[in-house]
Design goal:
The protein is mainly alpha-helical. The chain has four helices and two strands. The radius of gyration is 27 Å and the shape is flat.
Length: 173
């Protein structure tokens, strides 16, 4: 029975994911059909030229849908917070960091006259911080726990062997 529920839950999640992907594909298709994305020539320090994409106002709708999805996932993760600890992943810090970086980058995109170097730096720095925090909390933290368990287990064996050798020598006296 639980396998059936699990299978239905996965199907439902896949349908939601498919709807989200289709929504974004339809938006991009409409942008391309109506030629809504424009390209502007901009200068960096009046020496170098780069092309800047100017998206229509529906980009805000896409950002709102993605933010709504993040909010729903956050609420869902709060609802299931009392799950058995062995099934929990310590990803609170990476999620908060991701939300802060994405919000900050979106604000930077809407500031006119801001140098592309500054925008690219903060986009890159935010991505790097998110990736490193995920690696730390998801992988490195687990490896540290496994290593500590290994050390504790080996110390336990050493103590056990030491006690047994003491007992064996005391029996000969």
């Amino acid at each position: 029975m639980s396998k059936l529920r699990h299978h239905e839950s996965i199907k439902k999640t896949n349908y939601y994911l498919l709807i989200l992907v289709l929504f974004h594909l339809i938006i991009v298709f409409l942008w391309l059909t109506f030629n809504s994305v424009s390209i502007e020539h901009k200068l960096i320090d009046s020496k170098k030229e780069y092309l800047n994409c100017k998206y229509p106002q529906t980009k805000i709708l896409c950002y709102a849908v993605n933010s709504l999805l993040l909010l729903i996932c956050y609420i869902y993760s709060y609802i299931i917070r009392n799950v058995d600890p062995q099934y929990k992943e310590p990803l609170n810090v990476p999620i908060y960091l991701y939300l802060i970086c994405i919000s900050y980058n979106e604000v930077l995109e809407y500031i006119d006259g801001l140098s592309i170097n500054i925008v690219d730096f903060f986009n890159s720095f935010g991505t790097l911080c998110c990736v490193l925090s995920i690696y730390y909390y998801f992988y490195i933290n687990k490896f540290k726990i496994i290593y500590q368990q290994f050390i504790n287990k080996s110390n336990h064996y050493l103590i056990y062997e030491h006690k047994s050798s003491i007992q064996s020598t005391s029996s000969y006296e």
